[in-house]
């Protein structure tokens, strides 16, 4: 038995390597040099950047923008710490990145969008592309210009043909998923009525919940982000005209005002939200949550109970999305964060599913108006299609 296994093992490994290679491919970086003259720059003043894979065949005139995630910086200290990293400077970004999942160019991996123009916009401002402060303090050289970066990138893509798109999707994951919600209507407004425009947010539905110590950690944090970056004027006016702008970073206060069709993918036990909203380090000084945050199987009964409470709050905040069929959603009960950029969770033989539909199928059905999709999973641990995340204790918790 073990002899046979040993004999086949190298072949299995080889096959796995071949499969993994086909599943993703590398796409070169493009710097938007023309943005610099408009003051549309990354935190350190460098030009913004994206990775672009050209559409072909029937998809040649359709455009999918995927905004990269990577947390936020909320004050001078944290923005300085980010400034000279890939999340604050295009000088620090790697020159090629792998496209897979929703960015794949193969019909078997990405049946509805594989032949579209696919763009991954690099995140380099630290405020989900909402900031705009003219002044630059020479002592820090920090540029809070995310909103300008977003516009400059779109203008650059318009010049490359997106202006006359037949279909366009603004999507993103995590902080990028939040950007796709916050910019959804203003993105749609840039197109003529001839373009079918929709938005798509993966793991961007961050909720305003108390942490395990009873504090308002995330609300304070977002309020600092909005103040530091001067974001208020670039948040949806339907929210900022009636609420404190700091709150308008939360989708639950913004969604009601959004008029463009939008699809939300989120785990009700989103791992970033459990780690940073429910049980952030400041609310857990003794590290009781440490191993649970790394692996949901290590959570105690009372921690699971707290997470069930978080799910209830999530679903309440999510109910603000409304019932319109133009809004699609896929809310599963996994311990996950960002499920569309990885082939395993977007579309594969064992990827997450709700009522038998993968995220890729649900998204395609919704975009092309084949069928509405609005599904919320039963509570943990009912769903055996989940790919629950297990984190390395040394991993940086930004994404
Ligand atoms: C900046 O924000 C971080 C993270 O919330 C916090 O720990 C730190 O105290 C803040 N620093 C200042 C100077 O406000």
From TrEMBL:
Signal peptide: 1-24
A GO BP entry: cell wall organization
Pfam families: PAE
Top EC class of this enzyme: hydrolase
EC number annotated for this UniProt entry: 3.1.1.-
Subcellular location, record wording: Secreted, Cell wall
Main location: secreted
One Gene Ontology cellular component annotation held by this UniProt entry: plant-type cell wall
Name recorded for this polypeptide: Pectin acetylesterase
């Amino acid at each position: 038995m073990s002899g046979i296994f040993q004999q086949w093992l190298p072949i299995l490994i080889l096959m796995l390597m071949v499969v993994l290679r086909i599943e993703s491919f590398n796409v070169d970086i493009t710097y938007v040099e023309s943005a610099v003259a408009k003051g549309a720059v990354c935190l350190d003043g460098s030009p913004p950047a994206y990775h672009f894979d050209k559409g072909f065949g029937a998809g040649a005139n359709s455009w999918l923008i995927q905004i990269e995630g990577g947390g936020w910086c909320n004050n001078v200290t944290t923005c300085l710490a980010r400034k000279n990293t890939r999340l604050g400077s295009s000088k620090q970004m790697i020159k090629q990145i792998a496209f897979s999942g929703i960015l794949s160019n193969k019909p078997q991996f990405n049946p509805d969008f594989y032949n579209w123009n696919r763009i991954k916009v690099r995140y380099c401002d630290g405020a989900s592309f909402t900031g705009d402060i003219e002044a630059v303090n020479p002592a820090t050289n920090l540029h809070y210009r995310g909103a300008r970066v977003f516009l400059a990138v779109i203008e650059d893509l318009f010049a490359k043909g997106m202006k006359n798109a037949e279909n366009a999707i603004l999507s993103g994951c995590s902080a990028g998923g939040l950007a796709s919600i916050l910019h959804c209507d203003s993105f749609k407004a840039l197109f003529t009525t001839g373009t079918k425009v929709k938005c798509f947010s993966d793991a961007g539905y961050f909720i305003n919940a108390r942490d395990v110590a009873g504090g308002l950690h995330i609300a304070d944090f977002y309020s600092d982000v909005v103040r530091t970056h001067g974001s208020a004027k670039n948040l949806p006016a339907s929210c900022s005209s009636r609420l404190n702008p700091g709150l308008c970073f939360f989708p639950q206060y913004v969604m009601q005002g959004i008029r463009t069709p939008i699809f939300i993918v989120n785990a009700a036990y989103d791992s970033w939200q459990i780690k940073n909203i429910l049980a952030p380090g400041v609310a857990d000084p003794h590290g009781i949550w440490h191993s649970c945050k790394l692996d949901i199987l290590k959570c105690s009964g009372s921690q699971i109970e707290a997470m069930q409470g978080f799910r209830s709050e999530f679903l309440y905040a999510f109910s603000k999305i409304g019932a319109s069929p133009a809004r699609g959603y896929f809310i599963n009960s996994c311990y996950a964060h960002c499920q569309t950029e990885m082939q395993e969770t977007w579309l594969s033989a064992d990827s997450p599913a709700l009522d038998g539909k993968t995220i890729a199928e649900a998204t395609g059905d919704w975009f092309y108006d084949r069928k509405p999709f609005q599904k919320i999973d039963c509570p943990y641990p009912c769903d055996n299609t989940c790919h629950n995340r297990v984190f390395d204790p040394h991993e940086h918790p930004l994404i």
